[in-house]
Design a protein that fits this description.
1 helix; mainly beta; Beta-galactosidase, Chain A, domain 5; 4-stranded antiparallel β-sheet; 3% helix
C-alpha cells in the first residue's frame, strides 16, 4: 500500500544499508584508485530478475550485472534467489557466484521481508510482540536516517534480560532498529490475544533489522542482513 510503503520486499546486494556518500572505493591492480556509486541497499533492489526454473514447490530467479552496475561495482557476478515452499513454511536461499575467480569479490547480502501486523482481523499492532529464541541483553548503535550510516561505538541499551519485545510504533520514531549483537537465530511475531504468529529463522545472518513506518503502517519488517552500513569511526 503506497500510503505506507511504495516499495516491495527488496533484496539487498552488494551492500546492506548505506556507504559513506554512497561511494565504494576500490584499489584494484588495474586501477590505482576508483570510486563507484552504490546507493542505499545496493543496485538490484529495483531490478527485474530472470525466471530460471519452476518446480512443484520452488522457483528460482537470477540476475547478472548490466553495464551500469559494472561501472560502479567491478565484479562479474550472478545472484540467484530460490524460494521453496514446505508445508506452511517458505525458505529463501541466496546463491552468490563470483564469475571471475581470480578476484576476491566483496559483498553483503540481506533480505527485507515485511509481514502484516496485525495478522488477525479485530486486533491491532500493539497486541503483538516479538519473541526471541534466546534471552537477550543487548544495546543498539546510533543511526542517522538522513545518510543511512551508523555509529557502532555510540550505543543505547535496548533489550535487558528479556526474551520478548512488545510492539509499539514509538519504537521506530527515529529510525529502524539495528540488532547486531543478538544471540538468537530466530524471532517470532506473535499476537498476545489470539496466539497467532509467524517465525523468521536467520541462522546464517549476524544482524537483524526491525523496521516499520511512523504513520501506523500495518506491517513490520524483520530483515536478516549479512553486513551493516558504514560506521562513523570507519575509514574510507
Amino acid at each position: 500500500d503506497p500510503e505506507y510503503w511504495n516499495g516491495q520486499a527488496p533484496i539487498l546486494f552488494p551492500i546492506c544499508g548505506s556507504l559513506r556518500n554512497d561511494r565504494a572505493i576500490y584499489r584494484p591492480q588495474e586501477r590505482p584508485f576508483f570510486t563507484g556509486l552504490i546507493r542505499r541497499h545496493g543496485f538490484v533492489r529495483k531490478e527485474e530478475f530472470t525466471l530460471e526454473e519452476v518446480n512443484e514447490n520452488s522457483v528460482t530467479f537470477s540476475i547478472k550485472p548490466n553495464a551500469e552496475m559494472l561501472d560502479n561495482y567491478l565484479y562479474q557476478f550472478e545472484l540467484r534467489v530460490v524460494y521453496t515452499l514446505n508445508g506452511k513454511s517458505i525458505r529463501t536461499e541466496f546463491q552468490v557466484m563470483n564469475l571471475e575467480t581470480e578476484k576476491t569479490m566483496p559483498y553483503f547480502i540481506g533480505a527485507h521481508p515485511a509481514f502484516n501486523c496485525p495478522l488477525v482481523e479485530g486486533e491491532k499492532y500493539e497486541d503483538y510482540s516479538l519473541e526471541f529464541s534466546e534471552v537477550e541483553s543487548c544495546s543498539i548503535p546510533k543511526s542517522f536516517p538522513e545518510t543511512g550510516l551508523l555509529d557502532l561505538q555510540d550505543r543505547t541499551p535496548f533489550l535487558e534480560n528479556q526474551k520478548s519485545l512488545d510492539l509499539d510504533y514509538s519504537l521506530f520514531s527515529h529510525d529502524a532498529i539495528t540488532l547486531d549483537r543478538l544471540k538468537s537465530r530466530s524471532v517470532t511475531l506473535r499476537s498476545r490475544k489470539s496466539g497467532k504468529g509467524l517465525r523468521v529463522d536467520f541462522d546464517d545472518f549476524p544482524n537483524l533489522i526491525l523496521w516499520s513506518t511512523t504513520n501506523k503502517s500495518p506491517f513490520i519488517a524483520l530483515e536478516p542482513w549479512s553486513g551493516l552500513s558504514t560506521s562513523l569511526e570507519e575509514g574510507n
